[in-house]
Amino acid sequence: MQKFADEALIEVSSGKGGNGCVAFRREKYVPKGGPSGGDGGKGGDVIFTVRRNLRTLAHLRYQHSFQAENGHDGEGRERNGRDGEDVFVPLPPGSVLKDSGTDEVIQDFGKKDEGNFLFLKGGNGGWGNVHFKSSVNQAPRKALPGKPGIFRRLKVELQIMADIGLVGFPNAGKSSLLDKYTNARPKIAPYPFTTKIPNLGVLTLGSGKWAAGGNSGENRDIIIADIPGLIEGASQGAGLGHRFLKHISRTVALVFIIDLSEPNYSEAFDVLYRELNDFSPALTSKRRILCGSKCDLEGTGEALKALAAKYPAEKIVGISVFSGLGLKELAGEIGDLVNNTGDSG
Questions:
Q1: Model-level pTM?
Q2: 8 Å CB contact between 330 and 291
């Protein structure tokens, strides 16, 4: 069974500061030695760190509690306690940290150059009695306790980082296209809902058989995301795709895959557009291509012409993954979309 986790609840705690020490010098020729209690060490911090090798939040299913080490207590002879070790919580790129109670966004790891994020600082260590010596109190028996750490419950959500999102009805040919363009090997079968989790692949333009697109002659890697197929009502929770619509929110552009062999092909884009717009108007404001699939089947040539006539303002490309028709042209158009739009929106 494929494991994909895009939400998790976790608990994090920074470390408590170590206690200060009450101690006095005990040396052979110093019968009335002064205070020598050391300070407590600082508690460890809670730090979130982006790991490029992670693609899901599945690891947080097995470890959902993260506790930084407490600071160590001070000791005699003015020896300070050791600081507690920090705890690092690894997250995949595109993760969003939220307060579990209010859903307030704490940190969005959507930037490609995101590094470490110090979330909770550990408690400071308490002072030892050496700090309380004065002219009127040569032997203070006072030391301070360490400051407590901080505990928080958090919700972690994942929004996949990709350049292009493939959108379409079940069995429209999205997974077949991803398989043809990239090294991803999604499950492909001649029945709906074979894709149950988002799949990612990398299309390399400018080398081999795929054109670079536009004026760029350089190689460029474009990340493509294939989400489970949508059905009408997906934005309200129908079908499988509604859970994963958020994963195309960071994409630069969208490719709508329309099965030209289906009787309702002419209405497909309207339904898909409406579902995306109901979920988030930002999705329908992205640049896009309409891709008519399965052009090797009888009658699809006329269907492609009818689609182009219905949507004259849209860029429309006909393809057949089976015969290879239009795949180079579509790859070039995808390259143009990414090059002309800039980095992710």
A1: 0.72
A2: yes
